[in-house]
Amino acid sequence: MTVDRAVQQTPSPEELLSRARDLIPVFRSHAERTESERDVVAPNMRALRESGLLRLTLPERFGGHPVDVRGQVEVLSEIGRGCASTGWIAANHAASTDFALLLPEEGLREVFGENPDAVLLSAASPHGCRAQRVADGLVINGRFPYASGCRVSDWALLAAVPLIEDGAEVGAVDALVRPEEMEIEDTWHMAGLAGTGTHAMTAVDLFVPERRALVPARREDGRYDELLSPTVLVKGNLHSLSALVGAARGVWDEVRRALDKGRQIAYSTYDNAADSPAVRLWFAEATHLLETATLHLRAAADGLDRAGGQELERAERARLRMHSASALECSRRGTQRLLDIAGTSAFAKSNPIQRYWRDLETGSRHAMLNHPVIVEDYSRSLFGLDGVSPWH
């Protein structure tokens, strides 16, 4: 597939999904190197660009191939099925593009006008960052500890940076900057999703022109008009979840391949594991769990599609996040069953199963995918209680 084909044609959602599936072997072939280099390697990034899969949330006026949320999560899941780290970066980019569309049109033209396949990341910092007004823009200082893909991205969206005036916080800003304008610390040494290169970035007196900044007013309730809404954030988290659901399906692919080859069960009379009724039952259970995960993923996506871009009530957001939590839980349970079938050999460093497993287990602990807190928030919403996070 060439760049010209991706740019000149407007692909259907089915075509985009087909392209993602066709690229699974490519992503999979570079997964080990992506992990060892701790960044998505150039062949995978090139495949994402040439296929048009970086344009899922980009408006058509910039050459985008926008599809509905269900189409987005299905494509991102297929990318994660090939390589979870590559899927995570593609998901982060899709969400970050969505977030960035709130910024001034002039700034968006600077980012996407000449390069519709520009790669974006988004990063926030819970403490210590600050923005101050200067002539024609802002100056930002602070450390952003988790910036996925900062060494392979073209732009970084610094989200919800406190705006300080006369020593007091008077607002918050979003700003688009070049990652190379920031100091990148090599901090991401992880057991899973190592290939996402989620290093720390620090801004030191970083100037951001007005055209690449969003400075809304602070409301009486403490929120900010036009910044990331809770519903948009739910959608962004669903993007990340999609890559993890895909990783679980990657485990299924590898276990099925081993079963089809006629793997023996040690210390048993079975020369072919698939001849065992117990193995077949467990494989069926694992398959059903992964199918259930996909159903929950689609249910959350469909809820966002029904909203049509409008802000959802808190109870509905909590319900959709509960679907996300269930998708993740089913993915993990199904993967555990598959690991039991695969046996000790699945944990050999040469076996891709163990990488998928580590990626899933690490990514599923992301703060915004936190299962216990999501369940707590859903239970509170059912009884009309306030959420446990301002984003929920």
UniProtKB/TrEMBL annotation:
Lineage: Bacteria, Bacillati, Actinomycetota, Actinomycetes, Kitasatosporales
Protein name: Acyl-CoA dehydrogenase family protein
Domain Acyl-CoA dehydrogenase C-terminal positions: 243-370
Domain Acyl-CoA dehydrogenase/oxidase N-terminal span(s) in chain numbering: 29-94
Any Pfam family matching the protein: Acyl-CoA_dh_N
PANTHER family linked: FLAVIN-DEPENDENT MONOOXYGENASE, OXYGENASE SUBUNIT HSAA (PTHR48083:SF19), MEDIUM-CHAIN SPECIFIC ACYL-COA DEHYDROGENASE, MITOCHONDRIAL-RELATED (PTHR48083)
UniProt-listed InterPro entries: Acyl-CoA_dehydrogenase, Acyl-CoA_DH_C, Acyl-CoA_Oxase/DH_mid-dom_sf, AcylCo_DH-like_C, AcylCoA_DH/ox_N, AcylCoA_DH/ox_N_sf, AcylCoA_DH/oxidase_NM_dom_sf
Similarity comment: Belongs to the HpaH/HsaA monooxygenase family.
Keywords for this protein: Oxidoreductase
